[in-house]
Specification:
This protein has about 230 residues and is α/β, with parallel strands linked by helices. The protein folds into 2 domains: about 120 residues, Response regulator (Rossmann fold), CATH 3.40.50.2300; about 90 residues, Orthogonal Bundle (Arc Repressor Mutant, subunit A), CATH 1.10.10.10. The protein contains 11 helices and 6 strands. Helix 1 links the parallel strand 1 and strand 2.
């Protein structure tokens, strides 16, 4: 992708405008529009083509999470990155299951946001560790039980968490003291276990069907001992 077209949806004008100025100067990025409310965003989705939509959760006149389905009606290929100060656990799960590509917390740096945008635009998923914890906590609250036949090994669990943290293969390799080729092999194992072909599909399956086991280290450790 030569240029990432970005639509910003946030009801805080100063934040929205400052973010737009930053992204306009970032190489490979172009801000194609700004919206200050859920109503404006719903109208913009049918008029402005974007590769990535930066969507705040609390928009004053509505929740950003409710707009994901509306965006899909007009632009199936556009990626949604929630950029928020925080979200309830139930909303975190609902937004990711609804088709968002990631959640970015506003207390992080602009450089980190740029990285998140680039990875989401490339088809990857961005989740801060706190959002992973929220997804796990929510699944436990619903009383979901792990499918032991599909439980991950310790190494698979480490790589899975690296993917959820938005790390590249090289970064995962460094974090777990393994070679990059080894990490690639484990990712292929995860693809086969989940029945998917891409990272984004893998993350969605992990969140929707296996958050109570794949995202919790103790299950992987137990499986490795069994």
């Amino acid at each position: 992708m030569d240029e990432i077209r970005i639509l910003i949806v946030d009801d805080h004008g100063l934040f929205r405008q400052s973010l737009a100025r930053f992204l306009e100067k970032a190489p490979g990025c172009r801000v194609v529009g700004q919206c200050g409310s859920a109503t404006e965003a719903a109208l913009a989705f049918s008029a402005i083509s974007a590769d990535v939509v930066l969507l705040d959760f609390d928009l004053g006149d509505g929740e950003g999470g409710d707009l994901v389905a509306e965006l899909r009606k007009h632009q199936e290929s556009a990626k949604v990155l929630m950029v928020t100060a925080g979200m309830p656990e139930t909303s975190t799960v609902r937004v990711m299951q609804g088709g968002a590509s990631g959640i970015f917390l506003k207390h992080r740096t602009l450089d980190a946001l740029l990285t998140a945008i680039q990875r989401v635009a490339a088809g990857e998923v961005w989740l801060d560790s706190g959002e992973v914890k929220a997804i796990v906590t929510s699944s436990i609250g619903r009383g979901e039980q792990p499918d032991r036949a599909r439980t991950l090994t310790t190494r698979q669990s480490e790589v899975m968490r690296g993917i959820l943290d938005g790390l590249t293969n090289k970064e995962i390799a460094v974090s777990i003291s393994a070679s990059e080729s080894s990490v690639k092999a484990v990712i292929q194992e995860l693809f086969r276990k989940a029945g998917v072909r891409t990272r984004s599909q893998l993350v969605r399956i992990a969140i929707e069907k296996h958050s109570s086991d794949w995202l919790q280290p103790e299950y992987a450790e137990s499986a490795a001992r069994s």
